[in-house]
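Treating backbone geometry as a discrete language has practical consequences that deserve illustration. In the encoding step, the backbone of a single protein was reduced to a row of integers, each denoting a local shape. The amino acid sequence and the backbone structure tokens for this protein are reproduced below.
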Amino acid sequence: MANGKAGRSKDAVARERIREWMRIHHMSQNRLARLIDRPQPWLSRYLKNTGESAELLETLARIAAVFGHSLSALVDSPADPAEAEVVTLYQNLPDRARPALLNLLRKMQPADAVDAPTDRQRRE
């Protein structure tokens, strides 16, 4: 996902990310709407930014959960487009594939750039 431009609202980032997750997971608006207990026309209006905002945070959290993500994963985006793409690609990996990618990235780091592993790294 090559986005994350400065000045974009979190809502705009969320709309774009939902569309991307739908594309990646080959999910229709009808199916997603059923999974979050909302009418499909509501989802369509939300994605087109036509003023739908009722119960928005709760609904956005439910949308993120359908794809196995948190609400923060939906709205937080790095400013650097390449970094945003790496984060999105990582988030869309199956859990079993993530350690292999992390190990590859660690091996690619210059020796002096690698700090002590974080708690999360130790768990993986």
User: Anything to note?
Assistant: The two ends are 25 Å apart (CA to CA). The CA atoms of residues 1 and 20 lie 8 Å apart. Residues 97-124 form one domain. Residues 1-5, 119-124 have pLDDT under 50 and may be disordered.
